Amino acid sequence: MLIDINAYTGHWPFKQLHGNSCEGLLSRMKEYGTDMSVITNLNGVFYKNTQSANDELYGEVRSKRAFNDRFLPFGIINPIYAGWKDDFNTCVKNYGMKGIRVFPNYHDYTIDDPNLVELVKMARDADVAVALTMRVVDSRQRSWMDLSTEWGLKDYVPLLRSVPDARFMLLNLSTPLAISEGDEKTIKNGNVLMDTSGRYITHFANYVKRFGKNKFAFGTHFPVFDYYTGLLRIESLRKEEADEADRELFRHLNAKQFLKL
Amino acid sequence: MNRRNFVRNMATSASGIILGSGLLQATEADAQIPPNAGAEGRIKKMMSYRKLDAHVHLGLSNDPPELNVDFAERLGIDRMFLSKPVTRGPGAPEDFRACNDVILAAMKRYPGKLSGMLTLNPTYKKESLEEIKRCTGEGMIGIKVYYQVKINDPLFYPIIEKAAEMKMIILMHAEASLGIGGYRMKYDQKIKPLASIPEDFIEAAARYPEAMLQYAHTGGGPDWEYACKALRNSPNVYVDVSGSNNENNMVEFAVKTLGEGRVLFGSDNMYYQSVGKIMDARLTEEQKKKIFFDNYHNILKKGGYHVD
């Protein structure tokens, strides 16, 4: 079994994406034998009212049985926009979402914003995951209208420390992973799951050694990234680096346990 | 079937047993295995493509050549074309000679796996031409240059002329990022002022149509759509799709814009992404074979540097 914990539908305003619909993603999933995907509507990064994107996603997922069976939609919540608590409750209670995503840098608030901390506590209390995306695209080839700065892993860690009993997903590890010993301990001790899509995972076996084999799960960051690279990191492990049981953790067991599927 | 049942049912029919890639022996027939053949079939298919890594380094980090060889074996890369450009300081002759010595030592250690590309600094014309002679005499087959001098600078003319005479490709570090090297200087980051941007390649390629230039790493940070569109009408500029960026459609866009004969596989030491993006590209088997192997091999053949 295979579960992708980091996929999207929707548009990126500065570049044409391919396969960026539920149908497009499902087609890749069938090609690679992926059974389920966590999916988020990229439009919500750019809509001021992110709930419109969550409604779009929920509607599309509900429109077809295959989508409903195989997609795990995550809503995007902007905790400094009016009605965000209602948005959270709609996503979790009405739509049954198992997680939310936040984009502090795109939505212009800091990692220690009290509303964000409150949102994460709400997520913890509702037993849903909070996904933090290190970046969506590479700032080196950004549009002149896009953000010029990126956040490294260390910039997100304070939130993990603020609500240590919440469940966090750290996705697309493509910004610097240099962190202090204390930050590393926070990640290792926390209820944290990272995906395999990010460019800084230059030698997957070493990162498994560093953070532990229960900390990683297959993720694509598709359709921003190609579909295969995140999987290749797992499939090209040598036998002495990961046995079949370990590979099963990365392919689906860690995701299943973390998301309580 | 609801989601819970779906998960339960799928868990009992695991999608396939994965073998360590080092154990798999690829055959020609494996290229025909569809990607949905499961993990084992997918790895075998990936391993079945012959691969020449047209852009890879040694000595820019603490990683030893054993790591290059490990990934070559892990991902089925026949040969890596290795270089160590001068990335700090003035790039004086003693600097580029020392870099080349690192590569020469690795070539000797792994003669079947690692080939060398020499580096130089055109500011030092005499010493650079001497270095070409020294390094090619020891088996190096191409030139890798960084941003000490732009590719279209007159200082580069004697180097390009020598490379064209020897039918060697010049791999030049390239940028198309806001404010770097002259690209949209409104956003000037005041770094790398002498980095080569697509327009610099166009000018050099037009002046020397007999030369072969390699625009480095469309996945290494530059705006790859801009770069490919700019280079469209410069037939003697090849692009390698190496680099850490594995954006969906990058390889397809390069093929569509430049033609399937001008796109090269390279890793820039970002091994997973560089293989993954080509494997996943919506291209034909034949196109993938060209990108992974044939295109670069044809370049090498021109100077008699081919691997077969």
UniProtKB/TrEMBL annotation, chain A:
Q: Does the keyword field hold Hydrolase? A: yes
Q: Which InterPro entries match?
A: Amidohydro-rel (IPR006680), Metal_Hydrolase (IPR032466)
Q: Where on the tree of life does the source sit, at the highest rank? A: Bacteria
Recite the UniProt keywords alphabetically: Hydrolase
In this protein, which residues make up the domain named Amidohydrolase-related? Answer: 35-261
A Pfam family reported for this protein in Swiss-Prot or TrEMBL = Amidohydro_2
Q: Which GO terms describe its molecular function?
A: hydrolase activity
Gene3D superfamilies on file: Metal-dependent hydrolases
Which named protein is this? Amidohydrolase
Which species is this record about? Answer: Chitinophaga barathri
Automatic annotation (TrEMBL), chain B:
What GO terms describe the biological role, i.e. biological process, of this protein?
Answer: secondary metabolic process
Task: Show which residues constitute the signal peptide.
Answer: 1-26
Question: What Gene Ontology molecular function terms does this protein carry?
Answer: carboxy-lyase activity; hydrolase activity
Q: Which domain of life is it from?
A: Bacteria
- Short name of any one Pfam family annotated for the protein: Amidohydro_2
The segment(s) forming the Amidohydrolase-related domain are 92-295
Cellular component annotations (GO), alphabetically ordered = cytoplasm
Keywords annotated in UniProt: Hydrolase, Lyase, Signal
Q: What is this protein called?
A: Amidohydrolase
